[in-house]
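TODO from last week: model Cu-processing system ATP-binding protein.
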Amino acid sequence: MTDILSIDRATKRRGKQLTLDGVSLSLAAGERVALLGHNGAGKSTLMKLILGLTSLDGGEIRVGGTKPGSNAARLATAFLPEAVSFHKSLTGRDQLGLFARLAGVGMTPVADLLERVGLADAADRRIGTYSKGMRQRLGLAQVLLGKPAVALLDEPTSGLDPISRMELYAIIDELAAQGTAVLVASHALTEVEARTDRIAILRKGRLVANDTLASLSRRAELPTKLRIRARAGEADRIAADTGGQRVNGASVELLCTPEAKMDQLRRFAAMSDAVEDIEMTPPRLEDLYRYYAQEDAQ
């Protein structure tokens, strides 16, 4: 699989401080990667380097085999910033039409794109009357112009309501399906958990995780939570036999390692006279993020 975006030991300094420290990351065509990290971890710096807005102090970045900031790289890359801004006096149709002409695709796709992002009814209103969410939708329409090879989305759901967030990720899926490599920087962990192929986590300028959610979970060996709903009068016995903790009077909770999970489930299955139901909650992305972003994470 060919990498559309290749980042090799990217290093950036601000004065004496390293804002990016030897970051290596690659995206293949059609891959959706979530870029996570606390504020100041280096996410925005990395995106600026990919866009060619600032220069590297070490390492190399290639967009479709070309240097960031080159004409070929600019044509191949689309960017949606968190605080998207447009000319307030233009209408949505005028603004998107301008971008379409600059992208060399003409006005033909403009109406369909405005419809796709839910702005058809507001297409001829001035952008100065748009809400933040509407401006974000217009920015997403700009990203869709010209079928970019790489799409960089910085907090793309900022200002969007829950339905609009779902629609945005459906559009991201469409971008990936057409072969666009999508890098999504986000703090909305529950959203990216199910809608990206891989998770990359930055901490103080260093890449501390870069893998699928399942692989990161296995490596972290975080416990799975089991909740056993007991039959009437059986909760105390189950808690005593398993070392679990009583919850809400009728349930018992306990944590088990990934290796012990199946043995525990078989154990409870054999207690069918006392157990009414079993709920299993594996580690979520929030748990993994806390694990990998902490100071002593390896």
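Done. The radius of gyration is 24 Å.
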